[in-house]
Design a protein that fits this description.
The protein has 226 residues and is α+β, with helices and mostly antiparallel strands. It has 2 domains: 91 residues; 117 residues, Cytidine Deaminase, domain 2 (3-Layer(aba) Sandwich). It has 9 helices and 5 strands; from the N terminus they run H-H-H-H-H-H-H-E-E-H-E-H-E-E. Helix 2 crosses helix 6, helix 6 packs antiparallel against helix 7 and helix 8 packs across helix 9. The longest helix is centred in the middle third of the chain and has 22 residues. It is elongated and about 65 Å long. It starts with a helix and ends in a 7-residue tail after the last strand.
């Protein structure tokens, strides 16, 4: 077993490497190790980090894993979860802040990156709306509905009300497919049509409906469905 001086010296070297060069040259297990140490001041986290990567297969999968599943890895407890989840939450906040007030079209890559990061791990369907002003700048984003996307789960009147409150000139709808299937269902197509018709009653345009599944996405606009 390593003594505390050895553990602390190793951690200090990892932190100095990061401060000097960022994550360049870091192995994935070293990144996980650094995050685990945030919640474990005096414990060697290298082996739990390696075991977590072996179990989940990638850095992304470790960060997105359910806390209960993470704690099945020997050496990872409730305190360790903090470091992994705070890093993910900060990344999401950063990505969201980066696209606010940005042009939706010109910044579409950043928007998709945020949406993918935010939705790909969700176990249930989530319906979001992106509110745009008359210059296609993003005013804000909001999760409106959760659960399987059916006509009984998404209310056009609620979308219209939120569009008015946010003073939106245009909308982009977004939802995820936890199954990983990118193709829109009949319900997806029908709901999009109903929402577009409802928005038109208040002179608000619908620019797109995006489906997020895994690391990919499907655009209704690109496929001529808007």
């Amino acid at each position: 077993m390593k003594d505390n001086n050895s553990i602390n010296g190793h951690r200090q070297r990892l932190r100095e490497r990061f401060l000097k060069s960022g994550l360049e040259g870091f192995h994935d297990y070293e990144i996980v190790e650094l995050l685990l140490t945030l919640g474990t001041p005096r414990k060697d986290c290298k082996q739990p980090a390696k075991e977590a990567l072996n179990k989940f297969g990638s850095l992304q999968a470790v960060l997105e894993a359910d806390p209960k599943e993470l704690q099945q890895v020997r050496g990872i407890g409730p305190n360790n979860i903090f470091g992994l989840k705070i890093a993910q939450a900060v990344a999401r906040r950063y990505l969201a802040d980066r696209i606010l007030e940005a042009d939706f079209i010109q910044s579409s890559g950043d928007v998709i990156e945020y949406l993918s990061h935010n939705l790909r791990e969700r176990k249930e369907e989530v319906f979001m709306v992106i509110y745009l002003n008359g210059r296609n700048q993003i005013l804000g984003m909001e999760e409106l509905f959760k659960g399987t996307l059916t006509s009984s789960a998404v209310y056009p009147r609620e979308v219209v009300k939120k569009a008015i409150v946010n003073q939106a000139a245009a909308l982009v709808f977004v939802h995820n497919h936890p199954s990983g299937n990118l193709n829109p269902s009949k319900d997806d197509i029908n709901i999009t049509k109903r929402l577009k018709e409802a928005a038109s009653t208040i002179d608000v345009a619908v620019h797109d409906h995006l489906i997020i599944a895994g690391d990919g996405y499907y655009s209704f606009a690109d496929h001529g469905l808007i």
